[in-house]
Amino acid sequence: MSELRKLKVTEMNRLTAEEFKEAEKLPLIVVLDEVRSLHNIGAVFRTSDAFLIQSIYLCGITATPPHPEMHKTALGAEYTVDWHYFKHTQEAVRQLHEDGYTVLAIEQCEGSTMLDKLNLEPGKKYAVVLGNEVKGVQQEVVNQCDGCIEIPQYGTKHSLNVSVTAGIVLWEFANKLIGFRS
Fold first, then answer.
1. Distance (Å, rounded) from C-alpha 159 to C-alpha 136?
2. Which regions form coiled coils (predicted)?
3. DSSP 51-97
4. Is 0.85 topped by the overall pTM?
5. 64: phi then psi, degrees, rounded to nearest 5
6. Calpha distance 43→162 (Å, rounded)
7. Per-residue CA distances from 138 to 60, 76, 143 (Å)
């Protein structure tokens, strides 16, 4: 049996908050469309920090930092990851298009692209829209997007929790976008 020893936090060579703010971010923005759970919002902040996501757009009823319940899952990432608030998600998507982003809803749609078949292009900027825990991404927002991405699922359930979805999708995007830097 091999010797496995958990690393101490001081051995992980993590960025400081100041270094994180200065680090080159991935050309990816996460849009939260009417997400109600503070746990989910905090988890998206924490995952976005882990993968050097450029920014999070909080829309509609989605709460904004600071908030003690959000902090429980964000663990301070709400202070490192850049964020902006939009009253309406449609405004955020419109702004992203004006700024040259390809906007993709994470939703089960006719003609959606399965996440494992997703092809990204070097030099392009992307945004992903994650929807409400019950209703998903609003149809009006889906209509504005450049496409939809779906996570393949093989069991009896038809959806995943927002924070789980964010982890899967952001890992896939980060893996591909970081590969373009090589």
1. 9
2. none
3. TTEEEEEEETT---S--HHHHHHHTTHHHHS-EEEESSHHHHHHHHH
4. yes
5. -115, 155
6. 9
7. 11, 29, 9
Rounded Cα distance, 58 and 33, in Å? 7
- Of 3, 8, 65, 17, residue with least CA distance to 38: 65
pLDDT digits (tens, 9 = 90+) for 154-174: 999 999 999 999 999 999 999
Give tens-digit pLDDT for 94-119. Answer: 999 999 999 999 999 999 999 999 99
Tell me, rounded to whole angstroms, the distance of Cα 108 from its chain centroid. 17
The tokens for 67 are 């908030």
CA distance 36 to 89: 14
